[in-house]
Write a structure and sequence with these properties.
The protein is about 70% helix and about 0% strand. It is mainly α and about 170 residues long. The protein is flat.
Length: about 170
Amino acid sequence: MQASVVDGSMKSHGRGVRAFIGLVLGGLVSLLVSLSFTASAQVDQIFVGADSKVVESVETFKFRSQADQRRAIELSRRLRCPQCQNQNLIESNSPVAKDLRLVVYQMVNKGKTDSEIVEYMTSRFGDFVLYKPRLSPQTYLLWGGPILLVLIFGAIIFVTVRRQQRSAEKEV
């Protein structure tokens, strides 16, 4: 008799919890939908296509030569924005990226080499700003990890196939 009372109260309690969860989820969905419409209206003003010519002319700096300008643009493409983390300095619209583009411009105009500029950026922000991290003890796993995984999975596949062949030979 007690079990049925407990079961009955649990069922009515369960319905209330489910109704509450349904209301919360419905509210979250409607909030997300309204935010997505608001955000999609502003996307055109915030983001610029990465292949667009507009990206290269974010700021107009006066370089000593076309070669210096190309070098600065190439360097800015190789360096990751510390704030955005998924865009290079050219693609990013963040204030940090704008400041760093100015630093690259100034260093190129002072005659600094690419390695000096990269060294300055990595000393300030770490290897994170490099899209292609250097090979060092801290990055051995990063560079060797894919090769290691291929070798491990290759060994697993080899052992599995070999066992299947031996079991098939024993059956015949």
